[in-house]
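Protocol step 4 of 5: obtain the predicted structure for the target chain.
Materials: sequence only (see below). No template structures provided, no constraints applied. The aim of this step is simply to have a reference model before the mutagenesis design in step 5. Sequence pasted as it appears in the construct record:
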Amino acid sequence: MQVHECVSFLLIEDGQILLEKRAEDKATDPGLIAIPGGHIEGGESQLQTLFREMKEELDVTPQAYQYLCSLYHPTKELQLIHYYVVNAWEGALRSLEAETIEWYPISAAPIDIRADQVALSEYQRVSRYL
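Step 4 output (structure tokens):
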């Protein structure tokens, strides 16, 4: 079975997390509310993907970030998502690929994808150390 590696990023600011509503025409998880991210492309490192995907999806560049965890997400394909917490970025956030982006309180984030829910729980569990 082929595993597709991805990088997702928890943008955190003032006790809130930025989530996206995925476009209805996406091949995986269409229309779901999720933590933004994307596939690692051939030859890229996780950090290269983090920088590329944040620029492609939100038009920002990460300034302060830290690896959080990696989780499997069985969807149309089996994904291994590497999650990063991003606490600072350069640029004004714009939704370039998702239907919408919106800030939610961390304690009430309406995430539809189980792996993303687990990653947010892991962030809450260890956030004082990050």
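Step 4 remarks: The longest helix spans residues 46-58. The helical segments are 46-58, 114-126.
Proceed to step 5.
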